[in-house]
Structures are given as C-alpha cells and as structure tokens.
Design brief:
SDR family oxidoreductase, 272 residues, SDR_DHRS6-like, SDR_fam, 42% helix, Rossmann fold, alpha/beta, NAD(P)-bd_dom_sf
C-alpha cells in the first residue's frame, strides 16, 4: 500500500491532459496517489465526458484532480491559473511533475502538390510554423519558469516533454511539427542545464507510433501505423499506457539522476 501512495503529497501539472499521453499519465499517477492539475482545450460536449471520467478516477484512487478548460498558450490564462495554484498552500513546493503534452499545430506541406504557388492555403506559412513551435515546444519554457518563480516545484521536480521520430525524418504534412519537435529537443538540453541548479530535471520521451487523436490528424497516419507494426521488434505499436508507465518511472526518486535525456519508449521501433 505504501508503494501505491508514494506520491500522495505531490502534484502533477499536465498540459494537454484530455486525451492521449496526457490522459494516460493522469490515470497512471493517480494509482500512486499523485494529484493532478489538468489543462486542456475541449468543446463543452467533450468536457462533460472528461469530467465524469476524472471524477470517477479521483474517487476510486482517492486523489484530487483539477480540470481547467483554458488555452495553455494564452499568457493571461497561464498567469491566472498559476496565481490560483499559488493561493493553495498545499501546492506550494508540491509540484513533482510538469508534463508538456500539447498537440496543437498545422499539418500542411511546405510546397503545393502542383505548381509553384507557395502562397496557397494548402501550404505551410511562416506564421503556421511560428504558432506550432510555440504550441509544441517553447511554451514549455514559459510554464516552467513561471511555476519555478511561484515556488510551486518540489526541490526534486521533473519536467517532461514529448518528441517524435518525425523530428528527424520526413513525414507527409509534418513539417511544422517536425520543426517544433527539433526545437523542443534543443530547448530541453538548455533547460536541463539551467534549471538543474534548482534541482529540476528535464527530459524528453520519444514515443513510438501511437494511435492517438493527434496521430490520426497526420496525413497518411494509417501507413505510419502499419509500418510501425512491421518494423517494431515487439510486433505492435506503442500504447499511451507504455508512455505513461515511463513518465511514472521518471517521477520516482530512483530516476533522480536522469537529466537532459531523450528516452525511447517504442519497444525498439527506432532500432530499424
């Protein structure tokens, strides 16, 4: 029982926690007593379903799960939420994990399929790239610095982001996201060094191909899934629970010396 409640005084802040890796992480950490503040952006109909699910989970695991349907990329929204968190004395110095699981961006090619009209609405713009990079990369820095300044992190805090193989190879329509993920990998290296003096460890997980709502939006996702099954040594695609399990491990005391790493969670898919 002690093992299961090891994080009962700790909090996780999950950016993008309504589905996919973020949701699976909330569920996994709740098993070990970790409370969660979940930030997401959903329609009223989707939110109703999420709230019912989280209420049932919180009751089952005897944890607190706070839901905030706000734009995590909006400065005022971020300020407002962090101010609200600092008002709760139980959260001061209690944030064990900041997970960045925001999947928001543009999925267009760099060049049109026919002709040379790069101003076509079918192609990615510099503004699209800028937005996607902030959403899926540099917004992590804003959240981390503000949480640190507010005194919310534990002395042994963890920051985890999510990258992908698409940061290093061509996937159709993935250009803006690839740029964002590459940026995130560089950013995490600098955060690992410069936040390390505060006791905070920053790492990234490179998950294998995983069937999530975000993946399904990528052009040709069905082919990505099929190829992943064929090349994976363990014969299946990655599941969100596989990733959540490793996020949990990175939160443990035993993982305290892991900093500045990109950890493959893909069953060996990246090996071939």
């Amino acid at each position: 029982m002690y093992e299961k409640r090891k994080f009962s005084d700790s909090w996780a802040i999950i950016l993008g926690g309504s589905s996919g890796f973020g949701l699976a992480t909330v569920e996994k950490l709740a098993e070990y007593g970790m409370n969660s503040t979940v930030v997401y952006r959903e329609t009223a109909m989707q939110e109703r379903s999420l709230r019912l699910k989280m209420e049932a989970l919180a009751e089952k695991q005897n944890v607190s799960i706070e839901l905030f349907n706000i734009n995590a990329l909006d400065t005022a929204a971020r300020h407002g939420l962090i101010e609200k968190l600092t008002e709760d004395k139980h959260k001061k110095g209690a944030v064990r994990l900041l997970l960045h699981s925001i999947a928001r961006g543009n999925l267009k090619p760099l060049m049109p399929q026919t002709g040379m009209n790069v101003d076509s609405i079918e192609t990615i713009s510099v503004e699209d790239i800028r937005y996607t990079t902030y959403a899926m990369s540099t917004s992590l820095l804003d959240w981390a610095r503000e949480l640190l300044a507010a005194g919310l992190f534990q002395k042994d805090g963890r920051i985890i982001g999510l990258t992908s193989e698409g940061a290093h190879k061509h996937w159709d329509g993935y250009g803006a996201v690839s740029i964002a993920k590459s940026s995130l990998e560089s950013l995490s290296t600098y955060m690992a060094v410069e936040l390390g003096r505060f006791g905070i460890k920053t790492n990234l997980i490179q998950a294998g191909i995983t069937e999530t709502p975000s993946l399904n939006k990528i052009p040709g996702s069905e082919k990505l899934i099929q190829v992943a099954k064929e090349r994976n040594p363990l014969g299946r695609v990655t599941q969100t629970t596989d990733v959540a399990n490793v996020i949990y491990l990175l939160c443990t005391d035993e993982a305290g010396w892991i900093n500045g790493s990109v950890i493959h969670v893909d069953g060996g898919e990246h090996c071939r």
